[in-house]
């Protein structure tokens, strides 16, 4: 290999890294700030919280039941609930637009709106 070949390869690698880093920074700035977690109870909006701010929210229902929503590191998760089956607690954390955690006994639905789209159409585990 000649000296010019090595310089060309180095320049192309640096350009590729800069483009990838720029795209990632643009994506983080344009999607994470606009993503919101929307909590609805029996179809009525209870609250809307930004996915970019870490917080713990206790969702109180009129009958005394509750769900504890934790938003941390760009993910939303139901950490505790008063329902008997605990399916909402066992659900994976969510962060992509359209994902949801549902607590049927308490009629609580936690969804992500306005965030980045998931590249995976579906999965099972």
Summarize the structure.
The chain has 125 residues and is of the alpha+beta class. It has helices spanning 3-32, 87-90, and strands at 36-41, 44-50, 55-60, 66-72, 75-81, 100-103, 108-113.
Descriptive terms for the model:
single chain, 125 residues, alpha+beta, mini-chromosome maintenance (MCM) complex, domain 2, four-stranded antiparallel beta sheet, 2 helices
What does this structure look like?
The protein contains two helices and seven strands. It is α+β, with helices and mostly antiparallel strands. The protein has a four-stranded antiparallel beta sheet, with no helix packed on it. The chain has a three-stranded antiparallel beta sheet with strand order 3-4-5. The termini are far apart.
CATH structural architecture of the domain at 33-113: Sandwich
Outline type = elongated
Beta content? 25-35%
At the first level of CATH, what is the class of the domain at 33-113? Mainly Beta
Strand order of the largest sheet: 2-1-7-6
* Structural class based on helices, strands and sheet pairing: alpha+beta
For the sheet with most strands, the description reads:
4 strands, antiparallel
Mean pLDDT: 87
- Uncertain segments are none
Tally of helical segments: 2
Order of helices and strands: HEEEEEHEE
CATH homology-level superfamily of the domain at 33-113: N-utilization substance G protein NusG, insert domain
Classify the helix fraction into a percent range: 25-40%
Which radius of gyration do the C-alpha atoms yield?
A: 21 Å
Stated plainly, the CATH topology of the domain at 33-113 is called mini-chromosome maintenance (MCM) complex, domain 2
Per DSSP E runs of 2 or more residues, the count of β-strands stands at 7
| Alpha carbon gap, first and last residue | 49 Å
